[in-house]
Structures are given as C-alpha cells and as structure tokens.
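Researcher: Sequence of Glycerate kinase follows. Predict its structure.
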Amino acid sequence: MARSLVNDLRQIFKSSVSAVYPENLISRSVKYNPANQQLTIAGENFNLQNKNVYIVGSGKAVQNMAKEIEIILSSKIKQGIISIPVGSSNYKSELKISYYEGAKNNLPDANAENTAKAIRDLVIGLGRDDLLLVLLSGGGSALLPLPKPPITLEEKTALIKSLANSGADIKELNTVRKQLSDLKGGQLAVKAKPAQVISLILSDIVGDPLDLIASGPTTENEDDPSKAIKVIKKYKLYDQLPKSIKSVLNEVTCECKFPRENVKNYIIGSNRIGIEAALAEARNLDYWALGLSNMVTGNVKDVAIEYVKLTKLFCLLLEEKSSIKDLTQNLETICIPGIDVSVLKNIKSIEKKDLCLILGGEITVEVKGAGKGGRNQQLALEFSNFVGQANNDFAKFDIHFLSAGTDGIDGPTDAAGAIGYQNLVTEARKENLNTEKYLNENDSYNFYKKFKNGSFHVITGHTNTNVMDIHIIIIKKKEK
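Model: Prediction complete. Tokens:
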C-alpha cells in the first residue's frame, strides 16, 4: 500500500476546504466604501446612508462570515446575533455582535431555540431605515429551531430524526422543517418587514436551492401546504405524530405576504468551488484530475456500488482497453447524479499520469444498526468492501478513496470522514475486524477508530464552513 496516496488524498481534501473558508468567500463577494457608504455585494450596490445595519446568522460557517463582515462594515453595525455550533466559538466581538452556541452534534436543542427566539425578537423590531444582513450556511436549520406553537422542540426534533433514519433526503427533511417552523420557509424575512433584507449564503445542498439551504428563512416558501404531509406519509410516520404537529400541518392559515421587493439572496459559496480547488491541488500534485459531479445524492450503499463501476470504467481506459469515446458513452450508464461527460470532450488522448476523480454532494444513510458513524465514513467502508470484492478487476491498480464533509463533522462524531482502499477488508481481517458487521451496525466510526490505530480516519475538527461532502478517487497503475 502506497502511503503517499493517502497523504495526497488528505492534501487534496484540505485544499477543497480552504477554498470555501467563509472569510475568503466574504472578502471576495462583499465590498464597502465608507466615504460614500456604498455596500457592494456580488457587483450590486446598496446605499447605506441613513441606514442602521443589523446582522443575524445561523450555521456552521457564520461565525467567520460575521467576523469578516465586522471588519468590512465596522461601526456601521448596530447589533447582531449569531447562532453557531457547540464547540466552535473562538472569538469575542469588539462591536455589538453576540455569538451563541447550540445544536450539539448538529441536533436542535434548548440553547439554539433560545438564540432563535432572540433573533426573532430582534428582527420584529426593525423598521424602514434598517438593513438586516442575514448570514446562512449548512447547519443553519438545527441552529435556528423555533417550532410553531403548540409544537415543542422535542416533538419536532423527534419527527425529523425519524424521517432521517427512515432515509429521507435533505430536501424532504427541509420541506417538513419549513412547514413546522416559525422562522424558516421565509418567515424570518416576513417578520423583518419593512426592513431591507440581504442574505449571504453558503450552500450545503445539491443544486443550491435557496428555499432549502438552512430551510430558507429569507426565501419565499412556495410549497403546497400538503407537501410536508406527503413526505411524512411516504415514510409511514403520520399516524404516530403528536396532536400538536397534526394540528399545525392541517391548519389553514393566511401567512403574511412575503416581501419580495425588500429581499435579496446571494449564494457566495458552494460545493462547486470546493471541487475546483481540489482539482487545482490534484493537478499541482501531478495527477490527471477530472471533476465529474457536484450533485451526488442517493443511498450510501448504492453510491458505493456506482463508484466502483465508475472506477472500473476508468481503469479500462488507463489499460487502453477502451477509448475516451467508449468511456463517454459508458458514463451515461452510471447511476450517479450530475455526471458531466463534457469534461472528456476536449481530451485527445490518455494522460500518462495517475488519475484523480473528484465528485461532491450529499448522500443518505438508512440507519438500521445501533452503531456510531456518518455517511462519509460509511461510504468509505462500503466502497472498500465492494472494490475489494471486485479485486480481480483492479489487480493492476492501487485504488484509494476519500469521503469527507467540508464541515469537519460526519454524523455525531469527531471525524470529517474516512479513507478506503481495495485491500482494506483483507487487512482488517488480520486485525480481527469484520467490515460487514460494522457496516450492518452502522458503526463505521468505531471500525476506523480501531483499524490501524485510526490512521485512516479524516479528522479536521470544526472547519467553520460547510459546502457538503467531497469524494476523491485515486487510481494509480502499479509498477511492473
């Protein structure tokens, strides 16, 4: 096993995360001229003369977003409230911005709910001469939990957990969250009327849908009210709902009109930016690097199987048993969302280099066991299992794979993800570790903690950013 490939995987992933550090994204997107009090965001100008600026934020990346905004706008800021994950606070504002921790292990809790109430109370008091700057990123839903009465936070959290464990994807989860929430689904912007509202957003959802990122607190909710009920019934959970949730789901209310003319939403960071940086670093390390998709979704086991099929197609190309034209056609049979065959369009011949395939997105795990893990660790272990079973197809190659979350948190663990490879299962047996058992128990974290003393875990700590996950496959031809 080539240790250098593992180091390369870590370096490529690190570069992808660095590119989406929120302070870098803010400084690139936001400019302010104190002389004429002109604020410029993504090329669009806003006049702050005679305006009071307030800031609220929610998510894993918003602490560093807010810090950079403080530098840019300085004393123009009147007040701010920022909701951040437990364990991420490392800064005390010298201005009037308060940072509050909550949502331990990315789960809504009383601390996050109290912060959400404070944000609600702040925005309700704003007027026409006020500008509300809203900072949003992944994790924002858990950090802005304020259920519609009479629903309790415990009731809402239990439902979302049941949906997630049943295999509901992020879009389905947020559809339900919006319907049950007092700030999400555009309600934060509604409550801020008549103030002007500008949101700066780091996307953690495939396709960058504004209404779903952090459950869209400043984006008009155009869902049919019955959509949330349909999601819940799809997973056979409706009959188990408490009376409070049923009453909110079925009530016919006239929501306040969404203030479209007063609201601007800007996506300033996404998975695509992380992939572009990863590609640049892979090429710097002398790999033939291809970015194939930033829209990967699906069940973890299904994605692992498709990734092994994908790897096999590129191995055939490197062995010159197929052409680039063949590969282009065969890629269309791979069931991975967003595969971009156009990256092969201008390739004239095979590069005589090791190959690095980079993809991104967010997959799901149907939890059946009582173990500890997350989708990225589970994917790395599933990939290792399937690629090991097909070892004869890869006899001439070293195959290594990294799956990790850009937020540095994979499930309720201290790991961002893990690394897998084709001989992992065989080597695990020598340590009396049964990969199938750990997979069935959804216990990938404890597998990687024990396997080779944890050396194949990817542990970064909180990165204070979040643009979904990065998946990296390295294919190295063995020397004869």
